Amino acid sequence: MKRALSTTFLFLFICTLANAQSRLLESLSMDSDILDYDVEYSVYLPEDYETSQRAYPVVYLLHGYTDDETGWTQFGEVKRLVDEGIASGEIPPMIIIMPDGKVTWYMNDHAGTELWEDMFIKEFMPHVEGKYRIKAKKEFRGISGLSMGGFGSLRLSLTHTDLFAACAGYSSALWTANDFADMGQEGYDNMFGKLIGQGLSGKKRITDHWKTNSIIDLVRSKPLEELNKVRFYFDCGDDDFLAIANAQLHIEMRRKNLPHEYRVRDGAHTWGFWRTSLPIGLKFIGESFRR
After folding, report:
1. Domain 21-175+214-289 adopts which CATH fold?
2. Helix and strand tally (H, E) in the chain?
3. Are 117 and 107 in contact (CB under 8 A)?
4. Which of 1, 65, 80, 201 has the fewest Cβ atoms nearer than 10 Å?
5. Are 144 and 172 a contacting pair, CB within 8 Å?
6. How far apart (Å, rounded) are the C-alpha atoms in residues 253 and 162?
7. Structure confidence by residue, pLDDT tens digits, 28-50
């Protein structure tokens, strides 16, 4: 009888281990009153989520321009990379939330017709942090992203320093004021017309709304004491068309004496580069979660 019970418990234990795998839930949705449309998102849950009762730190991972909530899951191979990082001990177990930011640049538009940032802070974060076992505190919350998502993660962490412990941006879509003013008209209208003002050209694009959302302007204008509330990492490929503005951000942070980590690595504006950036960035953010 004892042998039968031991065999049963051993079988159940093996089954539990076999089922203890990380999970990737794609294209879930949240009804937003602020945006008046459903916001889709994907979720990564670490392998012990189903077998434990504890809460986990969270990282909000933002996609690039014209992508959606499946960009990181499909092309970024987020499940494989995070599984490997957690297994090696480089990354602490964490929940990763990947919202669909469409082409909003993760900000409110100048006319107040699409308030994506308001939705994210007031509706989305409370929704997912209530639905999943997330440690809903600043010290256990990070934000990260590539290209447009790098812009979004830097901007949201700079404007909400009370919400995020750390930020990691990869090939962040940044522009100096001169580069933004000199951008081709078609490119400006397609990417920023709705957000900043359709048809604007030259210096007329440097509006108050632009200045309050420009990463470089935010670093220049915010008190150092406020900026120091968040740990920053960002990188860019040496062949990336955004390399100059990312280097300028590094210069502005150095001038401000703001501690940060900035890396220039071999690569361009490609998924090959971002797949190598993600484990580095999550390790950096994860250091804020460790005790």
Report:
1. Rossmann fold (3.40.50)
2. 13, 8
3. yes
4. 1
5. no
6. 19
7. 999 999 999 999 999 999 999 99
